[in-house]
Specification:
The protein is α+β, with helices and mostly antiparallel strands and 163 residues long. The chain has a domain at 3-115: Aminopeptidase (3-Layer(aba) Sandwich), CATH 3.40.630.30. The chain contains 3 helices and 7 strands, in the order βαβββαβαββ. Strands 1-2-3-4-5-7-6 form a 7-stranded mixed β-sheet, with helices on both faces. The longest helix has 18 residues, at 12-29. It is globular. The model has no long low-confidence stretch (mean pLDDT 95).
Length: 163
Amino acid sequence: MLELRPTRFDHPDSLRLIAEVQQVYRERYGGEDDTPVDASEFAAPRGFFLVGYLDGAAVACGGWRARDGGEDPEIRDGDAEIKRMFVTAAHRGRGYARAVLAELERTAAAAGRARVVLETGTLQPEAIALYTSEGYAPMPNFGTYRCEPNSRCYAKSLRRRVD
């Protein structure tokens, strides 16, 4: 069973998995994700990062960082941006990405974030399928890749409806 552990963004296990996801980006897009990222952005209370372990081995990761209006026209006060969602190739297709995503959403909501946003690309159809199946809706592009034709951005409200 996958064990999700809060982990520093700059922990060796995190860094190894981040390097692997960057390699995937190089293979699919011809370069790494150039979005500016600082490890401190993923520390509580304005961020969170986790690593998923299977039998003691780090096999998945993901995090969120607080984003607020004024930083980007499409970003709202109370947003949390998901970054570095990744599952190693040998461990895909087992629901681990869904587990990571659910925990990121849960912790962002617990930290008072109202919406989760993310950016992915057309050369990651499995990521797009995951996000849309989990209720993410397309939104206008934001961030470093806002003008890139292969960029796709998605958002999901974290506020629960009261009926």
